[in-house]
Amino acid sequence: MDSSIRRTVLLWFMATVAITFNGKWACESKSFVVAVKTSEFTCKEAYATNCSAPFEKLDNGSYIWSFYSDIKTPINNDVMVQFQSYELKNDQFKKSIFHFEKSICTFIESDMWIIKMIRKFSNIPDKCPIQTGPLNIVNFIAKETSFPPGIPLTTWKFLFIFKLKDEEQARLDVVFKVEKK
Fold first, then answer.
1. Mean pLDDT score across all residues of the chain
2. Pick the CATH number of 3-180 from 2.60.120, 2.30.30, 1.20.140, 2.70.220
3. What pLDDT does residue 40 have?
C-alpha cells in the first residue's frame, strides 16, 4: 500500500474514532458533516469491563468523545486489531479497500497519526504491555485535519475487532454518513 493510501486509511480510521457512537457530529470543515447512523461497542468481561464511549455535544455543534474501560488482562503483542471499512452500494455494504490487521502493540508503538492525535487525551502507553486497570481517552475533539481532503460522500461502515488467540474480545461497529452541509 503506498503512503498516500496508507495516510487516507489512517485518516479514515481517525474519523471513526472521532465519530464513534450516538448522535450527529459536524466536522469543523465547512464542506461536509458526518452523521452517525448506528454504533455498537461490545467487550467480553474476561478482557475488559465498564466499557463505554459517550459523546457530549458542545455549544459550537462539535462533539467531544471519551472512551472508558477497565482492562482485566494485560494486553501484549498477542492481541490483534482488525479493521475493515465498507461502503454502501446499491443498498448493501461492500468491502472497501481500506483494511489492516496488526498487533495492538505494533499499532500503538508505530502509528504516527491516530495514536499521536489521541495520546494527549489518553493514558495509552507508548509501548506494550498495556497494564490492567483503567484505559481511557477523555474529551477528544477531532479537528478538520482528522479527515482526509475529499472524503467520499457516502455511507460507511467501519468495523474494528480486537482478538486474543483468534477469539474476539471486543468489537466496535459504526455506520455513518458523510454528506454535504
1. 75
2. 2.70.220
3. 73
